[in-house]
Amino acid sequence: MTETWTTDEMPDLAGETVVVTGANSGIGLEAARAFARAGALVVMACRNEERAAAAAGAIRADVAGASLAVEKLDLAALASVRAFADRVDAAYGEIRVLCNNAGVMAVPRRETADGFETQFGVNHLGHYALTGLLLPRLIDASGESRVVTQSSGVHEVGTVDFEDLMGERDYGKWDAYAQSKLANLLFAYELDRRLRANDVDVLSVGCHPGYADTNLQQRGPEMEGSTLRGAAMRVANSLLAQSPTRGALPMLYAATAPDVEGGDYVGPDGPLGMRGHPERVASSGASHSRRDARRLWAVSADLTGVDYGLDRPTAASAR
Ligand SMILES: NC(=O)c1ccc[n+]([C@@H]2O[C@H](COP(=O)([O-])OP(=O)(O)OC[C@H]3O[C@@H](n4cnc5c(N)ncnc54)[C@H](OP(=O)(O)O)[C@@H]3O)[C@@H](O)[C@H]2O)c1
Predict the structure, then answer these.
(1) Distance 193 CA to ligand 1 centre (A)
(2) 125: which residues sit within 8 A by CB, 6+ positions away?
(3) Burial class of residue 240, CB neighbours in 10 A (0-12, 13-18, 19+)
């Protein structure tokens, strides 16, 4: 892995389809722009069609001939995830890369249309369902395809509370975010093990952007009506965060670099993993618990009703 990898090193993606969730803002928008510049057809999977159309317009203004398709996807509603997967199935054929990027952070407790706590529901369960529903199209792609799941350095302080997954008894907005981001990694690694065990030529890779100046930090304060916290977040972002273009590099690297392997975790190489160029990084011990990963998988399958059909068992491990 080079220390100064940039988007200039992305392969030519002409003729390839890439799906990016949350492609209208922040890291997803910058990733969509880079994929479009590399020639891919980018399916911009977004919950708000107006914001998505504006983002697509901004990319088109920047990338001549960009090949973009805006499709509605609300990860907070399984019906929307299923409808999106059906449309993608019918309209776009094989998928080379799925970027599970959309997310919300530290929002007050709310529930999705299916009664899931929002951060767990959107960040993890929605992407679990989406990936399972799109897996046949990833498998269709001749040669290797990839699922890239966006986590966060915050996963390191996360635990998965299987007794109170939805935070009904005790809800902390940061605990719920950390749980969802740990779940993203448990999912990414378990998916890769299941793909390998079933001889499927799809890689599952995790990544995190470091600290990037995006809208992520504003959603919680907006929902709480806290202008003070919103302003404090903006100041912190302007002083400490890297650009969303930089923040998108680990996901783009994970999606396209030839030396990436299934089960890798990619993040910035700088101090505390907050900024820098992408490199393979370590994740917490908890993220490698196979026992928790299997349990989370079973719960996710049960809650979403999505069965991946990856039935051959992975290697046993006591962890
Ligand atoms: N920025 C950072 O420092 C940082 C650090 C660690 C990890 N991350 C992760 O990076 C990812 C991207 O975040 P970002 O920083 O780029 O934030 P952002 O600018 O707020 O973008 C988040 C995207 O997710 C979308 N989204 C939220 N809820 C959704 C739903 N129910 N269905 C579909 N899409 C939904 C948002 O749509 P709307 O525009 O409609 O709200 C937006 O497009 C997240 O997974 C986040 O946890 C970010």
Answers:
(1) 26
(2) 112, 116, 300, 303, 304
(3) exposed
- 47 CB less than 6 Å from ligand 1? yes
**Phi and psi torsions of 6, nearest 5°:** -130, 175
Using DSSP, state whether 143 is helix, strand or coil.
Answer: coil
Confirm whether 211 is a catalytic residue.
Answer: no
Cβ(282)–Cβ(265) below 8 Å: yes
Estimate to the nearest angstrom the gap between the alpha carbon of 246 and the chain centroid: 16
Closest among 196, 162, 193, 158 to 177, alpha carbons compared: 158
Per residue of the chain (319 residues), give pLDDT as tens.
456 899 999 999 999 999 999 999 999 999 999 999 999 999 999 999 999 999 999 999 999 999 999 999 999 999 999 999 999 999 999 999 999 999 999 999 999 999 999 999 999 999 999 999 999 999 999 899 999 999 999 999 999 999 999 999 999 999 999 999 999 999 999 999 999 999 999 999 999 999 999 999 888 888 888 888 888 888 888 888 999 999 999 999 999 999 999 999 999 999 889 999 999 999 999 999 999 999 999 999 999 999 999 988 786 543 4
Distance 106 CA to ligand 1 centre (A): 12
Any idea of the CA torsion for 205, 42, 96, 301, to the nearest 10 degrees? 60
154: exposed, middle or buried (C-beta count within 10 Å: 0-12, 13-18, 19+)? Answer: middle
List the structure tokens of 66.
Answer: 């960009």
Dihedral Cα 74, 75, 76, 82, nearest 10 deg = 80
Cα of 316 from ligand 1 centre, angstroms: 35
Which has the closest alpha carbon to 43: 94, 111, 110, 112?
94
Candidate of 20, 21, 24, 27 to mutate for ligand 1, largest count of ligand atoms within 8 Å of Cβ:
27
Sign of the torsion angle spanned by Cα atoms 267, 110, 86, 39: negative
